[in-house]
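In the previous chapter we treated chains in isolation. Here, by contrast, the input contains two separate entities that must be folded as one system, with a combined length of 478 residues.
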Amino acid sequence: MDAVGEAAPDRARPGGRLGGDVARRGRDRAAGVREAGQWTSVDDAELDRRFEAAAVAALRVPALAERSAFLRQVGRRVVPERLRPAARRAAGLVDRAGSAALSRYGRLRGRR
Amino acid sequence: MRPEAIDQVIPAIVEHDAVSNHTFEAQRLLRQLGFASEIFARIIGPGCDGRVRPLAELPTGPSAGDRRWVLYQSSIGSPAADAFAAFPGRKLLDYHNITPAALVERWLPPLGDETRLGRRQLAELAPKVSFAFADSAYNAAELTEAGYAVARVVPVLVEAGNLDLAPDAEVVERLQAARSRGGADWLFVGQLAPHKAQHDVIKAFAAYRRCFDPTARLHLVGREMGNAYRDALRRLVASLGLSAAVELPGSVSTAALAAYYATADVFVCCSSHEGFCVPVVEAMHRGIPVVAYAAAAVPETVGDAGVLVAEKDPLTVAATVAELLGDAHARAALVRAGRERAAGYSLERARATFRTVITEAVDHSE
C-alpha cells in the first residue's frame, strides 16, 4: 500500500508497465482507426453536439417546471377567479414563445 | 490528555454511501479503542435513524471539550462545519475531498455553492484542527495545501468482500442471456453525477460499438445525483440509438451489484474527479480489469493494477478497451494485479491504519 499512514507523497503515480503498454497500444490503435478514416474529428464533434443537445434539453425541463410553478403561485394571488381561464390561455402562449429563449439561457449557463 | 470520547460530526449520513459507511466503521473502531463515540449529523437519511444523533445535540458548553474530542468527516460545505469549528475541545478532521464546483454547478447550482463553501470551510478549519487525515495521498496533499500541519493517509474503511455474496439470480440470468448473444459488457459504478462523467463513458462506448464491437453493452449502475444529469444521459443514449445497449438501472441492492460485477468484462471509469473511487477497488477485487482516466486520486487507487488513459478522447478509450479485451495475457495479468491491489485496501488493513493514526493523534496531544 502506498503512503498509508505516511505524510502525503507526490500526487503523480505512473501506471504499471503492463497497463502502460496496453494504454500505448490503445493510442496506436486509435491512431490507426483515424488514419483509415473509420473515425474522424467529425464523429468526435457529433458526439459532443449530441451531448450538448441532451444537456440543454434536460436542463430546460426543470427550469420550465420551476417557472410554471412560480407563475401559478403568483397568478392565484393577483388574478381574479373569473379571469383565470383567459389568463391560463395567455400563459400558454407566453410559455411556448419563451421556450426558445429559455433554450438559449440553458446554453449560456453551460458555458459558465 | 487521553479523551474519554471521540465523537464524529458529518454533514449528512445516508445508506449505500462510502463516506457514511466509513463513518459507521470509524465509530466501531473508536469504541474498540476504548472511547465513547457518537455520530452527529445535520441530515440523517432513512435507515440511519437510531444510530445517529441530530447535530443540535452535539455538546457545546464550555466544559464539553474537557475529555471529549470531535472528528469531522469533510466532503461538502455545511453548517455542520461551523458547529465543529465552535466545539470547544480538540478537533480532528478526516478529508474525503470536495468536488470542484465547476464540475457540478451547471447541473445543480446549489451543489456548486455547497462545494465552494466546503473548500472555504476546509481552509478556515486548518488552524483549529490539531490532527488531520485523508483517504488518499491526493486528498492529503490538498490538506497540506490548505494549511494543515499534519496530513496522514487512512484509506476508506470499506469491505469489497461484501460483494462476495451470492449475486442476485434474476439479474445474473438477464445479463447472461444478453451475453449469450455475444459482445462485451462494460461496467461503471457510481452516482450518476457530472463529475463522474458517465457521458464520457457513453461517448467512448459509442465509438467502441462502431469501431470494434457492435454487440457490446454498457451498464451504468448508481443512483442519480439530480434529475437533469440523468435525463441528459438518457437523451444522449437515445440520440445515439443505443437504448437497447446501455442500461441505467439506478441504485441496486448489494446482490444485484455483485451480479453486475460477476458478468462484466471491463470496468471503465472516465471520472473527472475522485477523492478515492471505491468502485475501482470493488472491480479489482471482483477480478474485472480496469481502464480509467487518470484524474485526481484515480491513478493512486488504480496503482499499477489497471490501464490509465491520459485523455478522455472517446476513440482512445474505446481502442484501449479493445486492446485489453483482445489480449488474454494482459487481461489475466491485470486481473491478478488488481486482486492484489484490492487486498491492499482490505478493511482489515484500513482498520489497522485507522487505529494507528488515532493512537498517533492521542500521543500527539500528550
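Chain B touches chain A through 69 residues (CB under 8 Å). The mean pLDDT of chain B is 95. Compare these points with the single-chain example from earlier in the chapter.
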